[in-house]
Hints:
single chain; about 230 residues; 2 domains
Amino acid sequence: MKFLGLIPARGGSVRVKNKNILPLNGKPLIDYTIQAALTSKHLDRVIVSTDSEEIKTLASNAGAEVPFLRPADIATKDATEFSFHLHAIEWLKANQNYQSDYIVNLYPTSPFRTTASIDAAIEMVKKHPEADGLRSVIKCSEHPYKMWRNVNGYLEYFVNDEDPNVHTLSYHLLPEVFIQNASIYIIKTETVLKQRTTIGKKMLSFIMSENESVDINSPLDFDFATYLLSRKS
Length: 233
């Protein structure tokens, strides 16, 4: 089976300008993901999907393939995961007669994701061919039962329950809830093409540590990642 490593890195990030190539401990943020992917023993290819010539140059220098530039209409802040997955699949098929069995989506905002985790996630998928794919998750630090909607100045439950006292329970008494962590998303190419989605009907759960789940989306996140790297070294 062929597993395509796809690293989405558009140039027009909103919350942090040029986020994907900002230096983290002396090298572009995207480099951490590229290097983790290139050392995987299961990825057939590692491709960066970007609309930016600057990102294309940096990614190529780091060893990734950048065979195309993503069209502007699917490189906006509202672009969906499905749109750039489909574009990559169709472009590679039309221009290189290449099609993988799975796409392994690796966002560059997760610099602490390890090669070992990438390979373990792929091996889990190989053991469960009946699944459409896999999503990496982390246990929620904030529980949905503790969340509220603000409606005209009044609070309404985000999650309704027959017993209102459930919202006052200690966390260990509530059901475990997980949130996707933007680290490793795997989906069958067939699912993207036929179901028109990057989340199939039957998805495996790949639970990751807090450290590997760090997702950089703000200046404060960069500061925290820099601290983690300094502590590690």
